[in-house]
Amino acid sequence: MLSFNSGSSITELIDLVRAYAKQETIGELRGTGRWLAWGAIGGLSILLGLLFTLVGVLRLLQSTAFEGSSALSWAPYFIVLALTIALVVFSQSRIRKPFLHNDGKRV
What crossing angle do the helices spanning 75-94 and 7-63 adopt, rounded to 10°? Predict the structure, then answer.
């Protein structure tokens, strides 16, 4: 059983609990914020790169293989749509559970 002799012991206990809570929450939130920021930057970079690549493939198909063919003018769009769907399916298959801590332990 805990017994406190004075009010200063309770104040010290409250200060200790407060300092511990700040240490365990604020530090972790800063690390998580950095992790999320770098993930968002990386995701946007990949998104822009793939967008430019897919538009480039569309323009390449329109200017070479299907140039002058009005009957098949829809084909480059269909090919790029199929390529986009394939990339989305591949990306979804590669997503794993993210870990915030890099201590090597998997739960």
Answer: 150
Answer whether residue 85 is part of any domain. yes
Regarding predicted confidence, which is higher, 80 or 31? 80
Alpha carbons 10 and 43: distance in angstroms, whole number: 49
Number of domains composing the chain: 1
Percent pLDDT > 70 in the chain is 83
DSSP character at residue 102: -
Query: Is 1 contained in some domain?
Result: no
Dig out the tokens for 7 from the structure.
């009010």
Both structure tokens of 23: 């240490």
